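dumping this here before i forget
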Amino acid sequence: MQDTTQMLQLTDKALEKIKKLIAAEGKENVGLRVGVKAGGCSGLSYQMVFEENPLENDTVLEFDGVKVFVDVFSSMYLKGTVLDYTDGLDGAGFVFQNPNATRSCGCGQSFSA
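structure:
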């Protein structure tokens, strides 16, 4: 059995924003897929998309009623990551605080591990 307690955490601001986005989609039974894929200027990039169902081997996390799906490949890169949301003067968006990233690009959407 996989230890999912430290795989991925959401801050209160990120959770609040995700709930607002789900409400805007007009779908009650949707989950957020958080993943990593090859690409980006640093080698790997983050991916977030709403999906109705997890895949067979996904880890399913739940945060205050919000389901988060993480695939097997992504789980090794996301372990210990905190997903936050910022809406400061220099822009708004989700921010990944990933302890596995050895280098990241300026936009924060790409990293290497």
